[in-house]
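Our preliminary data section would be incomplete without showing what the modeling component actually yields. Below, a chain of 232 amino acids is followed by its predicted structure, encoded as tokens that our downstream tools consume directly.
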Amino acid sequence: MIGHRVVLGVMLTMVAAGCGSNDLVAGPRTDPPPPVPLPTRMTSLTIQPEVDTIPVNTGRQFTAFATWSDGASGSSPVEWTTDGGSISDNGYYVAGSIPGAYSVFAKGQDGVTAIASVVVSALTGSLVADATPTEGTVIGVDTTFTIKARLHYKVSGSGPAYLSASATFLYWFDRYHLRSTLITLPGASGDTTVVLSAKIPARFKGVTLTVDYVLRGGGIELARSIVKYPVR
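Predicted structure:
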């Protein structure tokens, strides 16, 4: 009787072991499908410049910068509109003939919007520089150069006007200012003379000297005249 129990126990153990081995036989392994990436969306939008002042009937370039949900950022095409003047599809704004404060609107993806302000000033101006030596004349290093310019200016509108003159050059990535001056103009139109003198050290041979004459009024640039000289 005891022998039968042992045999029966062994048989049950074998059956159990056999069932277990069948359970361990696995089929081909399949990985779960990758997650579906969420679509990238625009999260914010800004306009540069955000605030600006320009004369009537002149233009200014506006640029829209966006940030996306994946952390990327940069300039972005948008839909441009304005409540005064006109603006092109690429963001170039042209002021009308009526002074005042206006807004520039940009609408990007996913309904994200931004607003910039532009003040249109009644002041306008023109500027012509007759410089001696004339543009393109070579200036030598380690010698004192003198540039004399007779400036013909005209300002339309009320308020004081100013004329600035500066001599600069770019060396690698640094801009060097040699001379600058600021003149308050006595009337709405006329002539004035500006003289700039300086010396360029020999190590800067090969640069281009830029003399920049700027007419300003009402806190904005009205006109500009630039004269350039190679340095040898």
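Residues 112 and 232 are 53 Å apart (CA to CA). Confidence is low (pLDDT under 50) at residues 1-21. Preliminary results of this kind motivate Aim 1 of the renewal.
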